[in-house]
Design goal:
- The structure is a single chain.
- This protein is mainly α.
- It has one domain: DksA, coiled-coil domain (Four Helix Bundle (Hemerythrin (Met), subunit A), Up-down Bundle).
- The protein is built from 3 helices and no strands.
- The structure holds zinc ion (ZN).
- Zinc ion binds next to loops.
- The site of zinc ion has 7 residues, from loops.
Length: 118
């Protein structure tokens, strides 16, 4: 594993982790106490009294929720990559191959080589 690439990617991953944690509202909170994994829960700001308003707020809630789930999934992936950097397995595919450096440059959180990516 190319050490300087690993260091570069560690910086990128830490920055992404921080950004995701802020976006998801994790920053400064304890983990694991919320109803949703990682504490984030979109809130209904104000329920409208009209049926139409309610429907659009429910829709908005669903959108926020699915967005937050995408971000949670991304955060999990980023944190897994940081863990692999810490334990020395970073840059190795499940099959034991080295992940291509170009691939790691494009996607610092890549878990597999191109061959095993599907
Ligand atoms: Zn592989």
């Amino acid at each position: 594993m190319n050490k300087s690439l690993m260091e570069e990617n560690k910086v990128k991953l830490l920055a992404e982790q921080k950004q995701l944690r802020i976006t998801l509202g994790h920053e400064g909170k304890l983990e694991g106490k919320g109803e949703f994994p990682g504490e984030y829960k979109p809130t209904f700001t104000e329920l409208g009294s009209e049926e139409g308003e309610n429907a659009s707020e429910v829709e908005q809630f669903a959108n926020d929720l699915s967005l937050s789930q995408d971000l949670e999934a991304r955060l999990t992936k980023v944190e897994a990559a940081l863990k692999r950097i810490a334990d020395g397995s970073y840059g190795k595919c499940v099959g034991g191959d080295d992940i291509d450096e170009a691939r790691l440059r494009a996607e610092p959180a890549a878990e597999t080589c191109i061959k095993h990516s599907k």
